[in-house]
Structures are given as C-alpha cells and as structure tokens.
Amino acid sequence: MAGIRRKLKPKMKSIAMPLSYLIVVMIVITAMAVGVFSYYAYRKDSIDRNSERVMSLAQAVAAIVNADSMAKVMSDQKKMVSGRM
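The structure corresponding to this sequence follows.
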C-alpha cells in the first residue's frame, strides 16, 4: 500500500532549477549588454584618437611644405593635364 501512495503522490518540483536558469539567462544578458556598450565606447574613442592623429600629421606636413614650390608644382600639373586634353 505504501508503494501505491508514493506513485500517486505528486512530486514536488524543485525551485532550484528555474532559479538557476533565470540567473544564467540574466548573466548572459548582462554580459552581452556590457560587451555592446564597451564596443561602442571603444569605437568612438578610437575614432576620436585617430582623427586627432591625422590632424596633427596633416599640420606637420603643411608646415613642411613650401607654399611657393607647391604653387609651381600645381600650375605645372595643370598645364600638363590641359595639354593632354
């Protein structure tokens, strides 16, 4: 008789498994959110840093170039291009 009662008695469900799944899902979602935020923050910072580096390089090149010789080269290049056409 005791064996029959055990079979008929509904098993109690453990709350540990659903809580474990919930915690794992929350950890995964949090990790993904932090990853996406970090990517966009790094991307913006990288673009800003590279733009500053390019501007300083352009300023250095502009300081080195002699304006008179550059004007002569540009006018000679225009003459060559117009002579071809």
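The CA atoms of residues 50 and 56 lie 10 Å apart.
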